[in-house]
Amino acid sequence: MIAHHLELERVRIALGDTPLVELDARIGPGEVLTVMGPSGSGKSTLLAWIAGFLPPAFTVAGRIRLDGHDITGLPAERRGIGLLFQDPMLFPHLSVGGNLRFGLPAAATDREGQVTRALAEIGLGGFAPRDPATLSGGQKARVALMRLLLSSPCAVLLDEPFSGLDAHLRHEMRRLVFDHLRRAGLPSLLVTHDREDAEDAGGRVIELSH
Amino acid sequence: MLLRLAPVAIVLLLVGPVLAGIAMAALPAFGYLPALGGETLTLAPWRALFAEPGLARSVLVSFASGLVTTAVALAVVLLFLAASTGSRLDRWIRRLVSPLLSVPHAAAAFGLAFLIAPSGLLARWASPGLTGWTRPPDLQLVNDPLGLALMGGLILKEIPFLLLMSLAALPQLGPERRMMLARSLGYRPTLAWLKGVAPALYPLIRLPVYAVIAYASSVVDMALILGPTLPPTLSVSILGWFQDPDLSRRFMASAGALLQLGVTLAALAVWWGLERLAARLGRRWLEGGGRRRGERALRLAGRSLIGVTTLAALAGLAALALFSVAGFWRFPDALPQGFTLQGWSRALPHLAGPVATTLVVAGAATLLALLLALAALENEQRSGRHPGSAALALLYLPLIVPQIAFLFGLVVLLEALGMRPALGLVIFGHLLFVLPYVFLSLSEAYRRLDPRWARLALTLGASPARVFWRVRLPLLLAPLLTAMAVGLAISIGQYLPTQLLGAGRHPTVTTEAVALAAGGNRRLIGVWALLQASLPLLGFLVAVGLPRLLWTNRRDMRGTP
Questions:
Q1: Residue B208 CB-half CA count within 13 A
Q2: Residue A117 pLDDT > 90
Q3: Between A and B, how many CB-CB pairs are < 8 A?
Q4: Which of A77, A198, B227, B491 could potentially form a cystine with B458 if both were Cys, beta carbons 3.0 to 4.6 Å apart?
């Protein structure tokens, strides 16, 4: 397994004259860095910038390095950074298996085998032909996680991925997600306003004020 | 790369022909058209124009029909929305909007004519019981000199258009919250809507309203069927002069085209003045605090007016069907004595050519429009730059400048460039009117699509092209098919571009149907008009049915608009 690491070098994001975020951090393999702050503190802006979707209205200084390579100027699809949203966002026009295959790189070998194994791993063996709309919230979240992992990212951004889940599912999902990310040796950045998320993540916590 | 050119291409395509067409109408209007020997600037065409008998009346009818049609149609739509409560009837009417909108103007006009003519369906059903008529009365109910029948037909057609535009614009206003607020302040429901929602809705449908004014003041095909005859409306007069075998009449026709532009602009200006006036008077009404007075009358008007107009439109279509198979039918019998397929069997051998031309032209124009619209919208998504309201106004240009005012100039220009009337030109002419509607219909859905879908796909490593083909296009399949159906309907209903740019050599079902207007063979008219009305309906059937078929096993894809 390759040991990935994500570096955010002297990041400063501003909207006009209003500074939003300042950050300097290095996230090692399997490590989760939690960024906390109330809404409007610029958490989502930070994520959007790292993922490559920041609208041009913002001014940004700083670099993003992934495994030592500067990816600051790359388009989103070539950064190798995966994203887990608040909603599972399973493509409604594809089957469960189709969603997983969408995540697989075109060059991947044994595509069907990988999809089958991924579903078995989350206890959804045989679910490949199913309509995602027929899955429960927890099942959808697990499929979304597997789709992310199958796309073999080099780092992962988590945008409050547990806040849409019921309380009893939340703890279980956190464990599942963080276990998988750790095992895959992926550096992860978690953005949340839920302190329990940060505790379960078990890594460093940075608080954004404003 | 090509994507980035799409917005420019669209603007050039829509603005270029309109401006060039007006310019090429302006030159002959002042005597300059070397091909016909006009080499000096002169006011002679204008003198000839103003010497035409009945010109003032033509102008007045055109001007009035622009304003009256729009005012009535808008009032019916707003009152209906205000009085609508989500009852079953309301839902039915909302569901009928798209199919009614897809009925071409000519077919709707024939339907109305068959309904209200002295020997039409209504007179037959009301006679002799209510009227005492045993013979068709000697009344000019269709082609009346004031153009009332024409305005009636236009109103029937413009109500679904304005209603659809309003329904599309409403969600962004949050009408439920506004209603809740106003009703909690004690306003009765209809008044709450008229005072709390309508003032915010109007600015959003202003451009469609202007398009209705322009259309109603310059329509040709409907005026040929329902409009006055001696003299006809200004637009019909111009068409007559332009097609006159005496080519020198073209100078006068060009002056007429400019006059038409002026009449439409004048109608728009007067409407603009009325808007200001309504805003001033409306403010007093809004701030007066009246909560209940008039509620019942407004509610009754809102529900009955839309009911009558919808019923009339549907009854017109039924009349077309009935007359197309009617055998001997004595007045005032309610039904013919027998039914015959003679009209259909006589028309059948002649249907294939026009139907094929109609479908080829509509298909090609719609496909081109879809490609251009998709390219421009996709470019907008990728660059993150959204066009302003000025761009939207440009989109409406071919809908607000009267067709008759710039299509002549365009023909003159193409002739000067040595281009012969051909199918390609007809397609190009249709594209001018199909593209704005396709773009407007598609852009709503395109911009409303959750941007996170594309972001998610990109972070999964999909290229922008793959995101377009595998994510955006399938997610937008239903609105895409709707836009296609709209495009087909618009193209199928076009009369003037087909007639002018095809020089009559590429007849479609619409030009054939309109050509029958003068003849008065009801059976034959019924056949052609019914055919004309049913072709666009096929597009809407596909647009509704195909997504249901494809997504039988995808629950979340079925509810999408």
A1: 23
A2: yes
A3: 70
A4: A77
User: Which pLDDT does position B273 carry in this prediction?
Assistant: 95
Do residue A93 and residue B455 have CB atoms under 8 angstroms apart? no
* Residues B114 and B142: beta-carbon distance below 8 Å: no
Residue A76 contacts B where some CB pair is shorter than 8 Å: yes
Bridging pattern class, strands A18-27 and A32-36: unpaired
Cα angle, residue B389 at apex, residues B383 and B393 outer, rounded to 5°? 115
The residue type of B272 is: W
For the residues A27-53, what does the mean pLDDT come to? 88
Question: Where are the strands (E) in B381-486, listed by range?
Answer: none
The topology under which CATH files domain B51-228+272-340 is: MetI-like fold (1.10.3720)
Cβ neighbors of B101 (< 8 A, separation 6 or more) are B160, B161, B164, B489
Asked if the Cβ–Cβ distance from A82 to B459 is below 8 Å, we say yes
The pLDDT score that the predictor gives to residue A17 is: 83
Q: Is A2 within the bounds of a domain? A: no
| CATH code, domain carrying A50 | 3.40.50.300
* Digit-coded pLDDT (tens) for B468-483: 999 999 999 988 998 9
How far, in Å, CA of B25 to CA of B197, rounded?
A: 43
Residue A5 lies in a domain: no
- The reply to whether residue B455 touches residue A148, judged by beta carbons under 8 angstroms, is no
pLDDT digits (tens, 9 = 90+) for B509-533: 999 888 888 777 888 888 899 999 9
Of residues B50 and B127, which shows the higher confidence score?
A: B50
A65 belongs to a structural domain = no
User: Which residues in chain B are contacts of A91 at CB distance < 8 A?
Assistant: 453, 471, 475
Q: Given B461, B551, B557, which is nearest A151 (Cβ)?
A: B461
Q: Under an 8 A CB cutoff, do A131 and B462 touch? A: no
For helices B148-169 and B206-218, angle between their N-to-C axes, nearest 10 degrees: 160
User: In the predicted model, what is the mean pLDDT of residues A181-203?
Assistant: 88
Binary contact (A82, B452; C-beta < 8 A): no
Q: Are the Cβ atoms of B554 and A82 closer than 8 angstroms?
A: no
Residue A12 in any domain: the answer is: no
Q: What is the pLDDT of residues A192-202, one digit of tens each?
A: 888 888 888 88
Cβ–Cβ under 8 Å, residues B80 and B163: yes
* Mean pLDDT of the B397-426 span: 85
Number of domains in chain A: 1
Q: Which residues constitute the domain of residue A128? A: 26-54+71-207
pLDDT the model gives residue A210 = 56
Provide the pLDDT for residue B560: 46
pLDDT at B254 over 70: yes
At B1 the pLDDT is 61
Which of chain A's residues have a Cβ under 8 Å away from the Cβ of B470?
102
On the question of pLDDT at A42 being above 70, the answer is: yes
* Domain-wise residue ranges, chain B: 51-228+272-340
Report residue B137's pLDDT band, with 50, 70 and 90 as the boundaries: confident
- Asked if the Cβ–Cβ distance from A83 to B456 is below 8 Å, we say yes
Chain B residues touching residue A148 (CB < 8 angstroms): 460
Q: Which of B457, B458, B555 sits opposite A134 (nearest CB)?
A: B555
Tell me the C-alpha to C-alpha distance, in Å, between residue B93 and each of B70, B100, B180, B302: 20, 10, 24, 12
| Neighbour-count burial for B493-516, b at 16+ CB within 10 Å, e otherwise | bbbbbbbbbbbeebbbbbbbbbeb
Q: Nearest residue on chain A to B471, judged by CA atoms?
A: A91
